């Protein structure tokens, strides 16, 4: 069973639970969350109920998708979501979003580092992954900035490489390997960074 709580300096990551339903529903109304993720739009409370009570537990049970709520401090309010999905063959993809009031202060970079450390760690301390990929719809500069700061190497743009609510969109791609240093990586195109 994967470790369900990860703690850092400013954040704690735990699986979201039933008490988070209204907060997730509220945060998924944010235009940026809807613009840059694949959450349903419009987002209804029933979507949060389904996600937290069905999708998240199923992912943890199968080990194919691990989802954590990002909380300030130890046991604070939910301010975002982060997860590893498509876990197979010692590889996974990372995805994340953050509440508007929590953006721009390095909180997401810390959460990404915690999840990547766990993903790469071996044995009971982690998943033993060799590669973590990152994708974002082209134009999602905040997400790209986090990935670059966390040490991901930009690999390119996939033309119409992603689907959002039935529409194909260009997406950016990057990766982090277990042996890579966790330092900002040069070489990201100017259009990807703030």
Concise overview:
The chain is an alpha+beta fold and 194 residues long.
Explain this structure to me?
This protein is of the alpha+beta class. It has one domain: 3-Layer(aba) Sandwich (Aminopeptidase). The chain has helices at 21-27, 31-36, 45-62, 107-120, 141-149, and strands at 6-7, 11-14, 66-72, 78-88, 91-98, 131-137, 153-164, 167-177. A hairpin with a 2-residue loop joins strand 4 and strand 5. Helix 1 (21-27) crosses helix 3. The radius of gyration is 16 Å and the shape is globular.
Instruction: Please identify the top-level CATH class.
Output: Alpha Beta
CATH fold assignment: Aminopeptidase
What is the helix fraction of residues, given as a range? 25-40%
Q: Which structural class do the helices and strands define?
A: alpha+beta
Mean pLDDT: 95
Q: Rg from C-alpha positions?
A: 16 Å
Count of individual beta strands: 8
Helix and strand pattern? EEHHHEEEHEHEE
Question: In terms of topology, how is this protein built?
Answer:
Layout: E1 6-7, E2 11-14, H1 21-27, H2 31-36, H3 45-62, E3 66-72, E4 78-88, E5 91-98, H4 107-120, E6 131-137, H5 141-149, E7 153-164, E8 167-177
Parallel strand pairs: 5-6
Antiparallel strand pairs: 1-2, 2-3, 3-4, 4-5, 6-8, 7-8
